[in-house]
């Protein structure tokens, strides 16, 4: 058994947690998560908690999968580590690259036959910046340096990742963004639509912000546009159906590269292997991480589409970039076992089939709750806005901390749901059954009801 008080005191004495106010006393006494199975985690006090966030959007096959532990064990006993620098390679890294290439469907004139490995989403996006710049340099267009991201987009925490993302709190620390990265407004219908505008009209207008930015920067200076298929960490912002086709038209018109950051959206999350399939666009680079191993070990990378790969390969010259753990054999072996499970259990198909439809239908019922506006899902991702007045859609003030109150009630009742300002979001494991979804909804309703009682008090 775990001595909770001891672990908590060592935790606050020694462990600086990510995205945490180190001075804030309430961040001490962290809940100690000790084990997990299926869709549940348990803390050191024995509380069972339904993990509707799949950790950090990553445990797609659920917890406790022995096959993944076995794969790691077997690989560690055979070849625990070797690098992929200097003309060496390893079997799992090669097998996984070939398998990812076969899973990523060609779309239009784009195909994905090559993978560049890292260990995380952030590192992968750093690699994207390096690759995009090299691509344009090799084509003799070194002026094309500017990468356009989106306000409230999230692309990681490294200097380049945080710069590509559009989180103002992150930019405020560390002089970000780094040069040659700029942003456009997000396609958030609830917040950015004008009165009377349909979702579809809004989608086209929001995509138009990209064209306006390209013209402002100068089309000959723009290298790429980076976006998540749907914004995850920004609060589950699901774009209107008209958004991506219009984005595609604009990037094609100006010949700029399209980077699809699928760190959340790949590997079944939206009912397909990759998020670009869901929205039907043609990326040049696809960032992945998280669910490629269901989070059991760190692994990330970039699927490099033919347009970029061809130039990097044919023009030659060393690409001066890579990581000690690029193509880590244990991580790649675990990813192979993880993909085996996803294929055998048909998890992407499940998400775009019956179970996904049931999840969407039950989640939409949240729109009837007096605190909720705009509850919607896409695949196995859900978001909603907590509103002060359901009729007028009056928003809460940031100081009300309504999301944190609701999150507290979730946690108290045995549910992990994430708060992003006044939005509550989930991304449950893809192995949820209908019974699990019913239980999830019961817990969400309970947390919302208790939040409502608190607000009335
Ligand atoms: N890109 C997206 C879309 C993400 O959601 C995340 C993490 O949540 C990242 C990049 C960063 O990934 P990592 O935390 O593995 O560096």
Automatic annotation (TrEMBL):
EC number(s) given by UniProt: 2.6.1.-
> Which InterPro entries does the record match to this protein?
Aminotrans_3, Aminotrans_3_PPA_site, PyrdxlP-dep_Trfase, PyrdxlP-dep_Trfase_major, PyrdxlP-dep_Trfase_small
Signal sequence region: none
Keywords carried by this UniProt record:
Aminotransferase, Pyridoxal phosphate, Transferase
- Which Pfam family, an example, fits this chain? Aminotran_3
SUPFAM superfamilies from the UniProt entry = PLP-dependent transferases
Drop me one GO molecular function for this one: transaminase activity
Q: Which PANTHER family match?
A: ADENOSYLMETHIONINE-8-AMINO-7-OXONONANOATE AMINOTRANSFERASE
Its family remark reads:
Belongs to the class-III pyridoxal-phosphate-dependent aminotransferase family.
Q: What is this protein called?
A: Putrescine aminotransferase
Query: Required co-factor?
Result: pyridoxal 5'-phosphate
Going by the record, the broad EC class of this enzyme is transferase
Native source species? Rhodoferax saidenbachensis
């Amino acid at each position: 058994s775990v001595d909770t008080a001891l672990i908590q005191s060592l935790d606050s004495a020694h462990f600086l947690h990510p995205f945490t106010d180190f001075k804030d006393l309430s961040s001490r006494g962290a809940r100690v998560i000790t084990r997990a199975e299926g869709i549940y985690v348990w803390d050191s006090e024995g509380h069972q908690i339904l993990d509707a966030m799949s950790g950090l959007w990553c445990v797609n096959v659920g917890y406790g999968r022995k096959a993944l532990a076995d794969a790691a064990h077997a690989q560690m006993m055979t070849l625990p580590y070797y690098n992929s620098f200097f003309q060496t390679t390893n079997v799992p890294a090669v097998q996984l690259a070939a398998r990812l290439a076969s899973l990523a469907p060609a779309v239009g004139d784009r195909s994905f036959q090559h993978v560049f490995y890292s260990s995380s989403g952030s590192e992968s996006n750093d690699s994207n910046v390096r690759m995009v710049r090299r691509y344009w340099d090799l084509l003799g267009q070194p002026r094309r340096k500017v990468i356009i991201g989106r306000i409230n987009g999230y692309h990681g925490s490294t200097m380049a990742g945080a710069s590509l993302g559009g989180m103002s709190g992150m930019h405020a620390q560390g002089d970000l963004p780094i040069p040659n990265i700029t942003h456009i407004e997000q396609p958030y219908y609830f917040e950015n639509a004008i009165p009377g505008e349909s979702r579809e009209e809004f989608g086209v207008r929001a995509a138009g912000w990209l064209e306006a930015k390209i013209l402002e920067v100068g089309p000959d200076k723009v290298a790429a546009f980076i976006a998540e298929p749907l914004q995850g960490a920004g609060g589950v912002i699901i774009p209107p159906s008209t958004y991506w086709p219009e984005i595609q038209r604009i990037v094609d018109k100006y010949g700029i590269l399209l980077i699809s950051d699928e760190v959340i959206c790949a590997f079944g999350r939206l009912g397909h292997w990759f998020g670009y399939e869901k929205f039907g666009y043609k990326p040049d680079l696809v960032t992945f991480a998280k669910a490629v191993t269901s989070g059991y070990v760190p692994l990330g990378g970039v699927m490099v589409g033919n347009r970029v790969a061809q130039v990097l390969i044919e023009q030659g010259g060393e690409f001066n970039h890579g990581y000690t753990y690029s193509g880590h054999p244990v991580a790649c072996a675990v990813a192979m076992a993880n993909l085996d499970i996803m294929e055998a259990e048909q998890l992407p198909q499940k998400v775009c089939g019956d179970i996904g439809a049931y999840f969407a239908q039950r989640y939409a019922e949240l729109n009837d709750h007096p605190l909720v506006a705009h509850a919607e899902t896409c695949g196995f991702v859900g978001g909603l806005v907590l509103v002060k007045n359901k009729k007028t859609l009056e928003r809460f003030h940031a100081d009300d901390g309504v999301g944190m109150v609701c999150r507290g009630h979730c946690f108290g009742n045995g549910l992990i749901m994430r708060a992003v300002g006044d939005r509550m979001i989930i991304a449950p494991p893809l192995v949820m059954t209908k019974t699990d979804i019913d239980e999830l909804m019961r817990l969400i309703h309970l947390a919302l009801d208790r939040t409502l009682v608190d607000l009335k008090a």
